[in-house]
Amino acid sequence: MFDSLSCLALFPKYALFDKIKALIIIRSNPKKVKKWAYHAKMNYSHKYYLVKAERYRVLGYEDKAIECYDKAIYLANKYEYLLIEALANELSAKFYMEKGDNKTARIYMQDAYECYLNWGADAKVEDLKKSYPHYYLP
Predict the structure, then answer these.
(1) What is the per-residue pLDDT across 3-35, written as a single tens digit (0 to 9) for each?
(2) CA-based angle 116:120:122, to the nearest 5?
(3) How many CA atoms lie within 13 Å of 132's alpha carbon, on the beta-carbon side?
């Protein structure tokens, strides 16, 4: 999951050849996670949908990305994976920021903030407050 998310985060900065290599990675990794999610839904389904959301974001399928972000957040919450819930909210907020929808981004960023706070990721909480002061994080 983190391998795919790293490739997807850096995707816009890659040269053409590196983008091709990254696409191969982000196509094969989700297949593995999907297989694991089938056998252990509570451990992997939220991770699968988060990677899928980021892949759709990079490829420009906005509606599908939104659907997958929300499903990842829902499943991470349902199965009590606070870190993945926080990360999915943060990435969803950044997605909405890129679209210029700051009102929706603020909601997701505040949810990410709360999840990181509850998880005990104090350094990440401070990073969000410094990086996004205009999102009214406490």
Answers:
(1) 677 667 767 777 877 777 777 777 766 666 666
(2) 80
(3) 21
Cα of first residue to Cα of last residue in the chain, in angstroms, is 30
Q: What is the pTM of this model?
A: 0.82
How far apart, in whole angstroms, are the C-alpha atoms of residue 52 and residue 26? 9
HSE value, Cβ hemisphere, 13 Å, CA-based, for 91: 28
Place of tokens 């909210």: 89
> Token pair of 61, please?
């399928």
Using alpha carbons only, how large is the chain's radius of gyration in Å?
15
| pLDDT tens digit sequence for 47-77 | 989 989 998 998 899 999 999 999 999 999 9
* Residues in contact with 112: Cβ distance below 8 Å, sequence separation at least 6, in sequence order: 86, 87, 89, 90, 93, 128
CB contact at 8 A, 61 and 52: no
